[in-house]
Specification:
mainly beta; Beta-galactosidase, Chain A, domain 5; 2 domains; eight-stranded antiparallel sheet; single chain; 26 strands
């Protein structure tokens, strides 16, 4: 095989955990020399050639790859190389009015729905790697449950959770694709939370990044909330969630599915209103095992979050509805975000083929404590 042009040397420290198909990001200085066409950049470790995606950020380049395997404590050495040849595929997207369709190879992974006619932007459908649609869009019992979405029921006294006559609306003003390649797909959505009367109560910058593993899909959702003009009060209500998921009707506990949280709590009786680092909803759809897990990040506000999770198919991370979750009216979860300040949340969603809690914990560790990468150019 013809050798590629070497761009940099890489050292990867696995850390104290075994790594299996772990997403890894690292930074490179703007002084690094990268060609405009980056389709054929790889990370070579021994005889293994790992696809590498390079994205230009504001102050640096970001390199991203999926580490196939590393033993706990292992140090891997390799090179970033540029090779001639055809692109090996990966993610692609199709943009239509109010919808961005994300594919991996020939498979539909998810779509971002953001049309101005919608009450809020959201991801739907979301497919597992074995082809199962794992979420529901607006079921009859709760039409405002939109697959995977962000909303809250009390923002300065206004409801952005329900979809009633007087409810507010979350409007996507600008949606753009940041990166689309062999390793991941990423978009930015600049959103405005507007009341029925037209007043702006909140601004939001939402970033969604999709990774594809052999048997898992990972969706990173980062949302930054702010208002430069006034303070913003998030009221204490269980009707809300900075990350919310409504699962496929066949997965819900009422139809034989299962809820499990990071402490081993099972189903609504042991998970609703409880704090946990992650929560998983799994079941069987047309004979195929599937599940979807939401990971809270250690840097998030009021970590670990409270979970508003129901046997009928809802799973949402809600750190504000404390009085309801603790059954204590005096134990309030209200929070006032001062103007000019930001409230930042980061979540990872694991879409899997019926994985057990041991595997889910390993993916959670990857999310919080990924391998360390050192670059020499």
């Amino acid at each position: 095989m013809e050798m590629g042009r070497k761009i940099a040397e890489v050292k990867i420290e696995a850390g104290v955990h075994e790594r299996v198909e772990t997403p890894v990001n690292f930074s490179l200085p703007k002084s690094a020399s990268f060609p405009k066409s980056q389709k054929n950049i790889y990370l070579e470790i021994g005889s293994e050639k790992i696809p590498l995606q390079v994205t230009e950020r504001e102050d640096s380049f970001q390199g991203s790859f999926i580490l196939p395997y590393a033993k706990a404590g292992e140090m891997l050495r390799g090179d970033i190389v540029l090779e001639e040849g055809e692109d090996e595929g990966g993610f692609s997207y199709d943009s239509k009015e109010g919808i961005l369709i994300v594919n991996y190879g020939k498979s539909h992974v998810t779509s971002y729905n953001y049309g101005k006619w919608l009450s809020k932007p959201y991801l739907y459908p979301i497919f597992s790697t074995n082809g199962v649609r794992v979420t529901e869009d607006g079921p009859e019992d709760h039409v405002h449950h939109k697959s995977l979405w962000v909303a809250h029921g009390d923002v300065n006294g206004h409801d952005f959770w329900a979809e009633l006559e007087n409810s507010g609306k979350i409007e996507a003003r600008d949606v753009k694709v940041n990166s689309c390649g062999k390793v991941f797909f990423e978009l930015d959505s600049s959103n405005v939370w507007i009341t029925k009367s037209g007043s702006v109560e909140l601004y939001e910058k939402r970033t969604i990044c999709v990774w594809r593993l052999k048997r898992d899909v990972l969706i990173d959702v980062t949302t930054v909330l702010f208002n430069r003009e006034k303070d913003t009060k998030f009221g204490d209500t269980k009707e809300g969630g900075i990350l919310s998921i409504r699962v496929n009707e066949k997965i819900k506990v009422d139809n034989g599915g299962k809820i499990e949280n990071s402490f081993g709590g099972i189903n609504e009786a042991e998970t609703w209103g409880k704090r946990a680092a992650w929560c998983d909803y799994s079941g069987i759809v047309d004979g195929k095992k599937v599940g979807i897990t939401a990971f809270d990040h250690v840097d998030n506000f009021r970590y670990p979050t409270y979970w508003h999770v129901r046997n009928y198919g809802l799973m949402t991370a809600n750190m504000f509805g404390i009085s309801a979750f603790t059954n204590s009216p005096r134990n309030r979860g209200d929070y006032v975000l001062p103007k000019e300040e930001e409230l930042r949340f980061k979540y990872r969603v694991l879409v899997h083929e019926g994985r057990d809690s041991t595997y889910i914990r390993s993916k959670y560790v990857d999310f919080l404590y990924p391998p360390n990468v050192k670059i020499s150019t």
